[in-house]
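User: Design a sequence. Structure:
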């Protein structure tokens, strides 16, 4: 078996090295798929899997113009009964109406519209069904029962295997990001707070955020209003993301926010004995058994996106926020396979900054190297621990999230797997 896997590895590597010029006839898709499947922790992945844990809807809210109904917030839960409700969308009422688009977990069927007055006070809440085309709000249906818990702005956790197109250990901690979306008093603006939490690899990579479906020309500016540029004072020439501007234009005119050129510089601005950036596996292990791990504070920056109109600002929901990695894939840390982008599955083949796919179908193997988790405090696996492994013969699972294996095999169920930690000691 090991000889067979080595043969597959060399076959895949040889073709990937030539990927930018290799024709479909030269790419051994069967060998590549077999290699990825062997490395992945679960057999029988649902071939219709979209790797998505969220859904996006739009509702038009109507309020009496004569009342002090200044704005609407769409919440994931009832703030009078739940302390962890999140604000999924927010907007001021104009002419008694506001149209809001929101992204929420698949498990949420009932959402809540909170009415706020001009001073920011809460007037009450109205439940409504996800995706309802419209909702009329008035004093008769506003509810104010219980103690109001101030909701937080919605935060997603993003997990990456940065080795794409090659598989690795699928612990999804090569990069861990948290992104919070919030709003200002200006209806043309959206704030994204990006927190770099962990980097469980020794190999360097860059990161950026594509605003999918939003044109570069629709954005007036992107400014850092809290914190500083994540890779401030980066000491070497840029190779992954060549521009040092915060807002850059994608190959097809998309709006792209450049985050950093080297993750190790972001988390720990130190050099090794040879004058290179010190590369350790940061925040993925409790014990440094090999002197290759380190514990450092997470690093954050808030990006204020000013759009040319309110409609564009309201369209920036989490289904359009696409953080991605720019990497240099390597075999055994030596043979370069070129520069690639690592996106969540919905944007897996975008090639936003790099034209990395000559034949996209060759890599469509129903496996994702990145996950978007709609949970602000999601705990990710320790170094080398897969989210879950599954024994196809015995049906036994092992890992910190047993429900993940079930979701992999049936994308229509187990949408709340990330809420249940089955082996907490295997999580950071």
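Assistant: Done.
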């Amino acid at each position: 078996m090991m000889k067979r896997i080595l043969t597959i590895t060399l076959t895949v590597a040889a073709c990937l090295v030539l990927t930018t010029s290799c024709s479909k006839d030269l790419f051994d898709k069967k060998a590549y798929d077999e290699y990825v499947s062997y490395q992945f922790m679960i057999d029988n992945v649902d071939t219709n899997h979209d790797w998505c844990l969220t859904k996006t809807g739009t509702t038009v809210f109507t309020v009496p113009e004569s009342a002090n109904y200044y704005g609407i917030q769409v919440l994931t839960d009832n703030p009078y009964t739940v302390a962890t409700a999140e604000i999924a969308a927010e907007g001021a009422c104009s002419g008694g109406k506001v149209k809001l688009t929101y992204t929420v977990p698949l498990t949420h069927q009932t959402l809540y519209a909170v009415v706020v007055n001009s001073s920011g006070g809460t007037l009450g809440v109205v439940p409504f069904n996800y995706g309802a085309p419209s909702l009329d709000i008035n004093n008769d249906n506003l509810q104010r029962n219980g103690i109001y818990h101030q909701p937080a702005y919605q935060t997603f956790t993003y997990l990456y295997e940065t080795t794409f197109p090659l598989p690795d250990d699928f612990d999804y901690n090569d990069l861990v990001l948290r992104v919070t979306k919030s709003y200002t008093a200006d209806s043309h603006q959206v704030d994204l707070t990006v927190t770099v939490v962990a980097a469980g690899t020794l190999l360097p990579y860059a990161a950026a955020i594509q605003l999918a479906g939003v044109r570069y020309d629709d954005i007036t500016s992107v400014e850092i209003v809290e914190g500083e540029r994540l890779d401030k004072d980066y000491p070497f020439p840029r190779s992954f993301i060549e521009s040092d501007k915060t807002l850059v234009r994608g190959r097809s005119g998309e709006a792209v926010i450049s985050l950093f050129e080297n993750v190790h510089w972001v988390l720990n601005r130190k050099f090794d004995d040879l004058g290179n950036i010190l590369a350790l596996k940061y925040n993925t292990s409790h014990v440094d058994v090999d002197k290759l791990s380190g514990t450092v504070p997470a690093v954050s920056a808030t990006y204020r996106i000013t759009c040319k109109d309110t409609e564009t600002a309201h369209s920036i929901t989490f289904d359009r926020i696409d953080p991605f990695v720019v990497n240099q894939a390597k075999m055994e840390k030596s043979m370069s396979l070129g520069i690639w982008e690592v996106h969540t599955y919905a944007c897996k083949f975008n090639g936003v900054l790099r034209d990395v796919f000559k034949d996209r179908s060759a890599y469509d193997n129903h496996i994702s190297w990145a996950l978007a988790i709609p949970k602000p405090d999601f705990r990710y696996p320790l170094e080398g621990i897969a989210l879950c492994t599954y024994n196809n013969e015995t049906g036994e699972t092992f890992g910190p999230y047993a429900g993940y294996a079930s979701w992999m095999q049936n994308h229509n169920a187990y949408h709340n797997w990330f809420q249940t930690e089955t082996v907490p000691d295997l999580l950071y």
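Residues 1-11, 17-25 have pLDDT under 50 and may be disordered. The chain has five helices and 23 strands.
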